[in-house]
Amino acid sequence: xxxxxxxxxxxxxxxxxxxxxxxxxxxxxxxxxxxxxxxxxxxxxxxxxxxxxxxxxxxxxxxxxxxxxxxxxxxxxxxxxxxxxxxxxxxxxxxxxxxxxxxxxxxxxxxxxxxxxxxxx
Length: 121
Prior knowledge:
Layout: E1 3-7, H1 11-23, E2 27-31, H2 34-44, E3 48-51, H3 60-69, E4 78-82, H4 87-95, E5 100-103, H5 109-120
Parallel strand pairs: 1-2, 1-3, 3-4, 4-5
């Protein structure tokens, strides 16, 4: 189906998302930090990106800004999946072009899969 880039530094969550997406028929690519996320987005040209905000090397909002400023990656839909619940973070991510903003504590992996399917439609 779709190629999905998971930019998540928490190994357990990354594995859970990866397994769920593969089980749903998707191809996945993983990055453990923000810099790697930008590089892989440019190289792999995924159909969708799941992006954490609290990342080593480059904050997720910086990653989002870089992706949307690059003509090779600016059309790729991004779903932010993070623990940051602040209104300011949410507004900033949506202003920068995120398609959805999910707070990890409020969603399980099935909810995330549903959102991925909705955005890919």
